Description:
This protein is an alpha+beta fold. It is built from two helices and six strands, in the order ββααββββ.
Amino acid sequence: MRLLDDFFYIIKNDVRDGRTSKESEVVCAVKMKSGHSIYQAHFPSNPITPGVCLVQMSTEILEKTLKRHLRLKTAVRIKFRKPIVPSVEPVFTFQKLTVSDHQVSVSVVIQDEDTQYAKMSLIYAT
C-alpha cells in the first residue's frame, strides 16, 4: 500500500549529515489529506491517523530520501503517545540513521512544536 501523495504529502524534507560518515538525520514535515477514505473508517466521528500508516509513512519518506526500496525487517520498539488528527502537520525526525549495503536502521520521532506523537526504532532490509 503506497500512501505518499494519495494519503499524505511532504511539505519540507531536509537531510543533515551526522557526526560520522555513516549517520545522517532526516527531518520531514508532512500534511495528511483529511478527506481520505482511511479517516472514514478510522474513525468517522473522531478521525485519527492509524499507527500502521505512521510506520508506512516513515518507510516511504526514507525510501524517497535514500532513493532505494526498503522492506521493514524489525520494529524494535514502537510507542504511540498521542493520536494524530488530520489537521496536525507532524514532523518526522529520523535520528541515528545508519545505512549499509544491506540494512538501514533508524529511530523516528513524530512530533510538532508542542507534542510528541510517536517514537519508533525500525530496521529495514535493502
